[in-house]
Amino acid sequence: MSQQAAALQNYNNELVKCMEDLCSKREELNRQITQEEEEKDRLQHDVRVLTEKLSRINESLAHRLAARANFDQTIAETQAAYTKILESSHSLLSVLKQETGNLSKATEPRRKDH
Question: Kind and range of the H or E element at 78?
């Protein structure tokens, strides 16, 4: 029986060693899981922060694009109005020169033809 007891003791020792190895491996795995969960939490926080920032930037960009479109429209309307003013000024100047010429002719002394 002492051989059986020795064999049983060896099996028991091996079983204890295997259990200790399994517990050690589990502890290492648990440490890795904890690290990855912490990294996941940090990344999720970063994603939330970046998503909020992106939202604010998109909103700001939309306002700025609308403002730029208003500037473009105002500039275009102003340029068109200025062009009309220039054309009107040119027409007025032409009419004024013509009338000045006509008035000058009308006020010149008449020569008598012999």
Answer: helix 2-107
